[in-house]
Amino acid sequence: MRWLAGMLTVLVAVFAAGQGAFADWSNFYRPSARAEAAARPGAAVDPAGVCIQEILRAQLRHQIPGNLLLGIGLQEAGLMHEGELTIWPWVANADGDGRFFSSPGTTASWVRARQGQGVESIDVGCMQVNLRWHPDAFASVEEGLDPARNVDYAARLLVSLYGQTGDWIEAAGRYHSATEQYKDAYLSRLKQNVDIANERLDIFRALASRGVGAGGVVTAAAAPLPAGHFWTSDLTQRSGAAAEGARSLFGRGVMEPVLPAFRKMF
Question: Where would I find the Transglycosylase SLT domain in this sequence (predicted)?
C-alpha cells in the first residue's frame, strides 16, 4: 500500500489530464509522430542503448509514471551485455524459445522460420509485443523489431488500457492475463525490476545517450510505482529456465534484476 500511496497524486493528475485521449480508438494502430520520425533510415544505432532511449522518451511522451515502462522492458528483454545491464532490441520469443540476436536481420529471419513451422505466438523487440495477439501492430516483422515503433506501440497499448480501467496496475495486468495467478507471479518479479530501473536510472540515462535518434535524451524522474498488477508475455514461464539463470547476475546483498532466460546467439 505504501507503493500505491506514493503515486496516488501523480496517477490522479495523469488520469484527469488524459481521459479524453481514450475515447477515439480509430488511430490506435498509427504510431505517434516521434516513433515515425525515429523509425526512418539513418545512422546505425547502438543496440545497448536504443531501447532504453525510446523507453525514456515514451514514458515522458505518454505520461507513464514511475519508470514503469523501463521496468517492464528489463523484464521482457533485459540482458547483461559486456558487463552492462540493458534492454536488447533484437530479441524474439517463439512459444517459449527466446533468443537474443546480433542484428534485426538475423532476428527477422529466425522469426519467419518459426512462423513457417506453424508457430503463431511470437514476441518481438524491446517490449516483446506478441504478433499473434497484436496482428495489426506492425506492417512487417522488421517494423516490429524497430525500437521506436515497438516501444511506442507498447506504451500506447498500456496507456489505452489505463484509460479503460483508471488504474495503471490493472491496465498492465490486463495486457497479460485476467487470471490472477499469472498476474501475481509476474508482478512479484516486476516490482523488483522497477526498483532496479529507478535505482540505476543514471546508468540507464548514460546508456540511452548512446542511442541514435532525433532529439536529446529525456530526463525520467525516479519514483515509486503503485502496487498491483502490470503486464507480461510471461517470457520464460513455459521453458522453466527463469529459475535457473535469471536471478544470478549480481552478488549477494545487492538487488538483482529478474531477466528473461533467453539464449544469446552472438
Answer: 122-185
